[in-house]
């Protein structure tokens, strides 16, 4: 159970830091090529990439959860 909680906490922290880091990188022109865009395009691109980063984190979390559950074959009920 602690492994599940640890994965959830890590995914939650990354879900908060990834979009903030993306927007910070565009705002302070840390990401290459961001300085060549107009300010409105920088804002639009940073928000778009922040949403994409959140969706990627959710996707990775779902993949980790799917791998975690054991595969069980359904067996017929012997009492019938």
UniProtKB/TrEMBL annotation:
GO terms for biological process: vacuolar proton-transporting V-type ATPase complex assembly. GO terms for cellular component: endoplasmic reticulum membrane; endoplasmic reticulum-Golgi intermediate compartment membrane; ER to Golgi transport vesicle membrane. It is found in: Endoplasmic reticulum membrane; Endoplasmic reticulum-Golgi intermediate compartment membrane; Cytoplasmic vesicle, COPII-coated vesicle membrane. This is Vacuolar ATPase assembly integral membrane protein VMA21 homolog. Keywords: Cytoplasmic vesicle, Endoplasmic reticulum, Membrane, Transmembrane, Transmembrane helix. InterPro entries: Vma21 (IPR019013). Belongs to the VMA21 family. It is a multi-pass membrane protein. HAMAP family: VMA21. The chain crosses the membrane at residues 6-27, 48-67. Required for the assembly of the V0 complex of the vacuolar ATPase (V-ATPase) in the endoplasmic reticulum.
């Amino acid at each position: 159970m602690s492994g599940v909680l640890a994965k959830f906490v890590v995914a939650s922290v990354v879900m908060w830091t990834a979009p903030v880091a993306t927007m910070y990188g565009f705002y302070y022109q840390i990401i290459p090529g961001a300085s060549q865009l107009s300010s409105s395009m920088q804002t639009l691109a940073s928000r778009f990439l922040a949403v994409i980063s959140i969706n990627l984190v959710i996707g990775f979390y779902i993949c980790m959860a799917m791998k975690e559950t054991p595969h069980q074959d359904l067996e017929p009920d012997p009492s019938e």
